[in-house]
Design goal:
With about 425 residues, the chain is mainly beta. The chain has 2 domains: about 10-55 and about 275-420, Jelly Rolls (Sandwich); about 65-255, no CATH class. Helices cover about 5% and strands about 40% of the residues. It has helices at about 175-185, 195-200, 345-350, 370-380; strands spanning about 10-15, 35-45, 45-55, 65-75, 75-85, 100-110, 115-120, 125-130, 150-160, 170-175, 205-210, 215-220, 230-235, 240-250, 255-260, 275-280, 285-290, 305-315, 330-335, 345, 355-360, 365-370, 385-390, 400-405, 410-420. Strands 4, 5, 7, 8, 9, 11, 12 and 15 form an 8-stranded antiparallel sheet that branches. Strands 1, 3, 17, 19, 20, 21 and 23 form a 7-stranded antiparallel sheet that branches. Strands 2-25-18-22 form a 4-stranded antiparallel sheet. A hairpin with a 3-residue loop joins strand 4 and strand 5 (about 75-85). The relative contact order is 0.22.
Amino acid sequence: MLKKILSPLIIIATIIFFSACQDESNVGLGVLPQDLLIDHIVVDTFTLNNYTVSVDSLVGSGSENLLLGRIIDPIFGKSEASTAVQITVGNFLSTPDSIVADSLCLLLPYKKGMTAYGDSMVNQKINVYRMRENIKHDSVYYSDMLPDKLHNNELIGTANLCVGTDQDTIFRVKITDELLDFFVHPDNQSVFKYGDDFRKYFNGFVLQPTNDNPNASIVAFEMNKYAGMKAYYHWKSDPDSARELFFPISKYCARVNMFKHDYQSAEIQNYMNGNDYNFVQGLNGLQMKVEIPFLKKINDLGNVAIYKAELIIKNAEGKGFHENQYPPLKRINISGIDDNDNRIAIAEYTEKDIYHSIKLSETGEYKFEVASYLQKIISGEWENNGLYIYAGGSNNFSRTVICGSKSEAPPKLVIVYSILN
């Protein structure tokens, strides 16, 4: 069940009447025989109720990218990303009693093109714990899972994360020597031959930003061939013979992104009592709900066929929402809503865009096609439960402020319909 974060904020957006006129172009009306058409009309006077609600927890497991870090957004408050990840066996030592162990290092490659969100020049401390829960790559884990539940506070490494000043392409965390001894000990080499046996001895890592971190950034890492852990050693007979063992993060390794949001000290609280904005946030944070309470009254006109319906919302650019540091969502998603408050796909997007997302236009607008969804509502096939506007994907860490009903660019629904014989 969705919880209204900004309750009792319900913004009634009564759209100014622009036109209700006959369109002689008949664009898009060829789907029905011409002799069935009396007229087609354009109307954008629908009342829209819109408000902000929290997103139910979504799947956080199985992502190709790991997210890690902490930001303190003055508008949206504190957001924190932690992650849990397994490694698996790679090569192993054939003569382990002939080597000297040097060090152990966890390696996470920065994701190219979308490395960080927030202030990437600010340093933040990351703690690495030994995971004590056995998570599985073919199981589903949700993003609201608490990272503390996966470890017993067994700290095995710390590192400073500051991608803006890191000249390396890989984030490196030195792991404690106690764990190094486990990985190179002669008696343990037999378990390194099989992945399932290996994970009985070592479940993986849990990475968390510390609570005292300043406003920094959330950083993305990609699980490519360089992701994993390396054990460095040399031969006893040759101190200069640098060698390494690699334990990769393979596609069969479980990984879970976990997110936490705190809105208590954020400016978003100032909009609780009827201010003119809605809020959409990634990392399973916030979404916008749009209701069209009087939609079914269109049936009072007769047998109505909707040929085009466009919902238009505008990004509140230049309104003091710190968009230079926190850019708005480049793409935003839409869905219908079933009777259990679950998202349902809209037909306009299932065929041409599997993620049901719309790109932010050069004019700062998001425009959604919703004709088939509204037609099913007025025909009685679906209940009129409204629409969700949200940030798609559990790895999307951007956010957007949407203009509200009393703003200079309120949400607008434009419908082109005809009355059939």
